[in-house]
Design goal:
Strand content of chain B: 15-25%
Number of helices of chain B: 19
CATH topology of one domain in chain B: Alpha-Beta Plaits
Helix content of chain B: 25-40%
Strand content of chain A: 15-25%
Low-confidence stretches of chain A: none
CATH class of one domain in chain B: Alpha Beta
Strand order of the largest sheet of chain A: 4-5-9-7-8
Number of strands of chain B: 19
Largest interface: A-B, 85 and 92 residues
Radius of gyration of chain B: 23 Å
Low-confidence stretches of chain B: none
Largest sheet of chain A: 5 strands, antiparallel
Oligomer: heterodimer
Mean pLDDT of chain B: 95
Distance between the termini of chain A: 24 Å
Chain lengths: 398, 482
Amino acid sequence: MTDFLRPETPEEVAEAIKDIGRPIGIEGGGGLKGLGRTVDEQCILKTDRLTGVVEYSPTELFVSFAAGTTLADAKAVLAEKNQRLPFDPPDLTHLYGSNAPATVGGVAAAGLSGPSRLASGAARDFLIGIKFVDGIGQYMHGGGRVMKNVTGYDLCKISAGAMGTLGVFTEVTFKVLPNAVAERTLALQGLDDFAGQAAMSAALKTPFEPVAAAHLPANIAERFEGISNSSQTLIRFEGFPDSLDYRTEAIRKHLQAENIITYDGEASAAIWSGVRDILPFQSPDDRAIWRISTAPTAGPDLVAKLQGLGGEAFYDWAGGMIWLALPPHLEAAGSAEIRSAIEFTGGHATLMRGPEPVRAVVDVFQPLAPTIMKLTKGLKDVFDPNGILNPGRMYADI
Amino acid sequence: MVMLPDPDPAILAAREEIIRDLRTIIAAVDGVIDHPDEIKPYETDALTAYKETPLAVVLPETTDEVAAVMAYCHSRGVKVVARGAGTSLAGGALPLKDAIVLGVSKMTQILEVDYDNRTITLQPGVTNLGVTDAVSGDRFFYAPDPSSQLACTIAGNIGMNSGGAHCLKYGVTSNNLMGVELVLPTGEIVRLGGKHLDAGGLDLLGLITGSEGMLGVVTEATLRILHSPEGARPILFGFKSSRDAGACVDAIIASGIIPVAIEFMDRPAIHATEKFAHAGYPLDVEALLIIEVEGSRDEIDAMLSRIQNIAKDFSPAYERVAKTSAESIAIWKGRKSAFGAIGRISPDYFCMDGTIPTGKLPEALDGIASICQSYGFEVANIFHAGDGNLHPLILYNANEPGETERAEACGGDILKLCVALGGCLTGEHGVGVEKRDLMTEQFTADELDLQRRIKRAFDPKYLMNPHKVFPLEATSMMEAAE
C-alpha cells in the first residue's frame, strides 16, 4: 500500500518532509510516473493541491505559479494576456498512458522543453525563480522574479531537470514572452535524413531567424493530419505578417529547394504541437521511447548506426534532438547500442518510456563519468542529506 | 570597507617554496610571476577601491598545467583566485595575501568554429569581442556583450554570468554557453555539455555559470554563435518624466514587441554623456530611451514605426530615428561612453548593479535620489529597461577622508532598496567582495548555508576565492563547525 500525502501549503510540505523519516516519492499530478528508474515507493507526496497563480506581471514578463498548477491552466492564464512559456513545454503524460494532467512543477522538475528550445531556450533558461523544501524540511528559495540575476549560485538551473531529487518545488517562476503575432512553416518535401538535416543547418546559418526546425521521415509524417505522404523538413518562423513574407521568401531562395509547401497559422501550430508532444509515437504503446540530444549534424549518423534495432525516429532541434521508438522486448531496450553510439557523437540519451523491469536495471538517464557522479552525489548530500527525496529515480544513489 | 580574512602565516612563510614548486609545474619561464613590480597589475580589478598583493601570479597555457597547479594547491592548502582580464566591478578577481592568482591570459586559442552546429570552441582567455571577431568575417557573432567586451575574457564572463545591452533578446552567458572543460579545485578535469543541448544528469553547467570562480577553473568553452542580423537600428526618445519612459517600455512589451535592447538614461547621465560624447542628446528631458530593433531595412522601418505609434501615447518630448548606420552609431555613442563620461565629471564613482521588476522603475529612481541626497552624493542612472537591470553610478571622491566608506554605504542602501522592491542585489556584475556582506538581505541563514555547502561539494578545502560571495562571519562559523 502506498500512502499519499497531499499538502495544501508550502508550510505543510515542509512539515511533512521534516517528519517523514523514510524515502518519499515526489510528484505533481503523477503523469510522468513512468519517467525515471523504477523505484519502490511506499509513500508519495503530491503537490497537486498547491495550485494557482501566485503573481503574474505581463509587462514585467514573469509569472509565478504554485507548483501543482496544471500546465493547461498555466497556459490558459498566460493566453488571456496573449503570452506564453517560451520553452514550449510538452505534455508527455500520454506516453505513460496517464490521464493525470502535467503540472508546471513537473515540467520544471523534468526539465522538459519543446521545439522552440532551439531558438528560445530550455526550461532551465526560463525558470528564473523557485521556492522549494529541501530533504530536511527547510523551506527555501532560489532566483527571484527578475530575468537578470547573478546573486549567489543558480539554484534554479541545478534544480531544473533534477527530477525532484534535490527538493520539492512549491512555487515556480518563469520568464514569459508575448505570443507570436503570426507563424508560418515551410515544409521541404522528400529529403532523406541527411539532406533534411543539412537543409535545417543551412536555414539556421542565415539572418532570417527560424524559431524551430524538425525533420519527419515519410513513415512519421504520414501520421500527421493534412500533411502529404513524403518526408517533411519543417522550418518554422514567427513574427509580424510582413516580416514572415519577407523571411520565408528569402529562405526559399537561399535553400533553392524545389518542392516546398507552406503551412500558415493554425495548420502550422498543429504540426508543431504534434512534434512537441511526440504524437507520432503515441501508439502502439508498448514500444521503448528514447530521447537523444546530440550535435545537430551528428543526428542522422546516429540514427543510421541504430538502424539495426528496428525502430523509427524523427528529429527536432535541427537534428540535435532525436526521438527514437524501438520495438518492445529488445534486450535492455537497446540501451547498450544507444550508449555506445553516443560515445562517438557526444550528447546524452534518456529512456523516456520503457517497461518497469527494464527501467529497474538499465540507466534511464545518461550514465555519468565518475568525477561527475561524485559531484552529483555531493550535491544530493547538500540538498537531501538523508537521501529521502525521490531516491533512485534518476540514478541509483541519487 | 569589506574585511578580508587574516592570511595564514604558515603559507606566507612558505612563499619561496610554493613559488619554486609552481615553477616546476609551469613550462614557460614567464608563467610564474613573483616580482613585486610585475605582480602589481594583478593586485586589483575594476573595483579599484580594494587592493591586495598575492603570493604569486601563475599563467598556465594548457589544461594540464591548470590541473597540475590546482592539484598542487589543493594538496598544499594554497588558496587560488582565478582571473580573466580583471575587469570585475565587484572585486571578483581581488586576490588574497596568502593566495595565488591563476590567470588565463595565455590561454587564448580558438580551437574550432563549427558553423553547421553554430558553435565555437576556445580557450577561456579569448576576449568577449575576440569571439565575435573570430566569426564576424562569416557574418556570425557571439551575443552576450558586456560593456567591457573589448577586454573581458570568456573565463570571466562564465564566472560572472555576464550580460550586456542585448540580452533582452539573446539572453546572458548561461543561455549561450553550451559546454566547458572544467578543472575542479582538486585538480580533476571534467567535461560538461558540448555541441548538444542540455545536460544528461544534473545541470552542473548551469550551476558553475555565475559561480564567481569558486567551483573550478574553466579551461575550454563551447559557445553558441548566431548569424548576424541583416541590420540593426535604434530610435531615441526623450521624455518629460521617467514615469512616462517606463510606461512607454511597458506598452511596447505589452504590444508583443521585444526589441533587442531598451536602454534608459536619467537626466544626470544624459548631461554627463552629452558633455563628453556630443551625441546630440536632448538636454531638456528627464529620461532618454534608446530602443534597438533588428532585421532587414523594411523590417526595421516597420518595427520602428510601430514603436513610434506606441510611444505617441506617452508624449515624447524628443524623437530621433537612425536612418543610416552612421546615425545609429551616433545614438549609441553617448550610451556607450556613459561610464567614461561619468569618470570625467567625478574623481571616482561606484557602478552599482541591482535588478528591479521593470514596473518599479519610478519608485526605484525616487528612492535612489533620496538615498543619495541623504548621503550628499550625486547619482546618475543607467538602466537596461527591458530586463530591469539598473546601474546607478554614485559619484564620490576617494581622496576625501571617509568618502569611500560613505559611498559604499550609500550603494548598499540602494541595493537593499532593489531587494525590497522585489529585485536582487546583482543582475550581471556578480557579488564578489563588493556585495558579499549584503547577501543576508536576500537570503536567509539556511539558504546561505546551503549555497556554501554546494561550494564544499566542489571545493572540500574551501580554497577557491574563499573570501567572495558569502559573508565572512558565516563562512568562518561554518569552518569552525566542520
